Each structure stands twice: as C-alpha cells, then as structure tokens.
Amino acid sequence: MSVFPHLTVICGSTQILKHCNLALLSSPTDSPAILSYDTTFYLGDVYASVLLFRMTVFQSTPVIPALFLIHDYKTSITHQEFFSHCFSTFQTRKYHW
Q1: From 32, 62, 78, 95, which residue has the greatest number of CB atoms within 10 Å?
Q2: What three-state secondary structure class fits 34?
Q3: Residue 1 lies in a domain
Q4: Count of Cβ atoms closer than 10 Å to residue 75 Cβ
Q5: How many Å apart are CA 5 and CA 88, to the nearest integer?
Q6: Could you tell me what percentage of the chain is helix, strand and coil, using 3-state DSSP and rounding each to the nearest 5?
Q7: Domain count along the chain
Q8: Strand locations in 1-97, DSSP E?
Q9: pTM value?
Q10: Is residue 2 part of a domain?
C-alpha cells in the first residue's frame, strides 16, 4: 500500500492467488488460463481495477478475481506498479508472457 504521493492499495486472497498460480502453471493449450485486467469502478474519490483469471482446473472454467487495485489516479505508472507486483507475486519465470 502506498499513500504518498498517490493512494495505491493492492489486495487479494492468498488462497485465490495460489489457485491462480495453479491455473497458470497447469493450463493446457486447448483451455488456457486467461488473464484480464480492467478499471471498472469509480468509487467517488478512488478507482477500483481488477485482475481476473479463468480457473481452468474446474470443468466449468469460472472467471475469478485474483487481485484488486484501489487507486486515486488513472495513470500508467499506477498500473505499471500494479503489474510489477503481479509479476513478483506469480511465479512468472515459468510462464510465457
């Protein structure tokens, strides 16, 4: 979390992140795990962005939110910081980004 010079909060469930890691590591080519990112909510003074993934280990392949970003400005630097955190959170050395 960062509050200066801008508010930036990254949050998510460690259990969900473990499942997301599993989906990314084990997704077959015919049903790949898909990541999607969007700034979808404006909550008065802040924005909420969400990183979604498709859980391919289940037959129904539900789409589940992995991480949330709460931020006060929609700048490219804010989103770059978020994805830097994502790359350090997930076992990125095993993926083909």
Answers
A1: 78
A2: coil
A3: no
A4: 11
A5: 23
A6: 30, 30, 40
A7: 1
A8: 8-11, 35-42, 47-54, 63-71
A9: 0.77
A10: no
